[in-house]
Design goal:
It is a single chain. By secondary structure, this protein is mostly helical. It is built from 9 helices and 4 strands. A two-stranded antiparallel ribbon has the order 1-2. Helix 2 packs across helix 4. The chain is globular, with a radius of gyration of 26 Å.
């Protein structure tokens, strides 16, 4: 080999090594980044190197929110209440209230297997509307087994306001959702709360543990009569318990009273915090057990695995992985991302680097 050929070979070797080391660094970064998911939601076709990927949003316990985070959430909710889409006589917020009421009446959202996936999608769509106002906002959750009293942090005037005033028909008279500031279109005009009138106490940690210990998602007849020792969904939703009283999710609605007792319960913004916690418990159950959704067939229309849930047009199968929907809860460990296209390419580069070193060692031995 001539001197010139030796020089070209050396330059080529340096270029290859530089490229390989660059890709190796990319591999380290790819695995060190926070978990990412496509905010397009189910059906994204961007591929493993999704161009619109973003870090997983974190839904936090309401009692850990900073003052700024509380203010941001409340401000975004108030903005949706005051914003109307072109041609609509209902605000964006009240469209969600109406949607819940109609789905409740039609049997799409409750007393069946789709209770959890329907509300997961409902919260996701509401959260995306909040993020149109402020991209930093996520829905906080209310752990009702911990914050169990009328003086808990979420009921303070700087957040959701407190209990209703018996002298004012149980209308809420403090906080940002008080009488005159938060006018209900459905079952209005005032937001009402009557803590503990219908049931004296909120669910306990033992109640939640009993639900999480049920190893099957649902069981026939796939409705409010499903045995709660064989149906995690019905246990958590709160029907058919041996106490003959509403439990867990249903008990919380009754404890709140007032505007939360009825089909238009999203009238009270605490609805979103309650259902974020229900969704969090489902995510915890999925991590603990086989996350298979039941049934594939055999329930009423809209509640089977691949049925389209009205009015969303997505099926329970599309929302089973909440990480794929772009969020996680602060009680979950940080998620290690699966290797995407860049990471796999970089791992290949590391292999190439090892192969190149092996060739040089063999050449040196000769």
């Amino acid at each position: 080999m001539s001197d010139g050929e030796y020089g070209l070979a050396a330059v080529s070797s340096l270029s290859v090594r530089a490229a390989v080391w660059a890709l190796a660094a990319a591999a380290i970064l790819a695995f060190d980044l926070p978990a990412r998911a496509c905010p397009c939601g189910p059906g994204c076709s961007c591929g493993p190197a999704c161009a619109c990927a973003a870090p997983l949003r974190v839904r936090k316990n309401q009692n850990s929110l900073s003052e700024q985070e509380k203010q941001d959430f409340v401000s975004a909710v108030l903005r949706l209440k005051a914003t109307f889409r072109p041609g609509s006589t209902l605000s964006i917020y009240d469209q969600f209230v109406q949607q819940h009421g109609e789905s409740f009446t039609a049997g799409h959202a409750h007393a069946g297997p789709a209770f959890l996936p329907w509300h997961r999608q409902f919260l996701l769509q509401f959260e995306r509307e909040l993020q149109q106002v402020n991209p930093n906002v996520t829905i906080p959750y209310w752990d009702f087994t911990v914050d169990r009293t009328p003086d808990a942090s979420l009921w303070r005037p700087d957040f959701l306001g407190g209990n209703g005033d018996p002298a004012e028909g149980f209308a809420v008279t403090d906080g940002p959702f008080r009488r005159g500031e938060w006018v209900l279109v459905f079952d209005g005009p005032d937001l009402r709360r009557n803590f503990g009138r219908l049931v004296p106490e909120l669910p306990t940690p033992d109640d939640v543990k009993a639900a999480l210990d049920v190893g099957r998602y649902d069981t026939p007849p796939y409705n409010r009569l499903s045995p709660v020792d064989q149906s995690f969904r019905n246990n958590l939703e709160g029907f058919n318990h041996p106490t003959f009283f509403p439990e867990l999710h249903n008990r919380v609605h009754l404890w709140l009273g007032g505007s939360s007792e009825i089909i238009y319960s999203p009238n009270d913004p605490v609805f979103w915090l309650l259902h974020a916690n229900i969704d969090r418990l489902w995510a915890e159950w999925q991590a603990k057990h086989d996350p298979d959704y039941l049934p594939v067939m055999g329930a009423q229309e809209g509640h089977n695995l691949h049925d389209r849930m009205s009015p969303f047009g997505v099926a329970p199968a599309d929302v089973l992985d909440h990480h794929a929907l772009g969020y996680r809860y602060d009680t979950e460990p940080a998620v290690v991302p699966a290797p995407g296209g860049l990471a796999l390419l970089a791992l290949g580069a590391l292999g190439l680097l090892g192969w190149q070193r092996g060739r040089r060692a063999k050449a040196h031995d000769r």
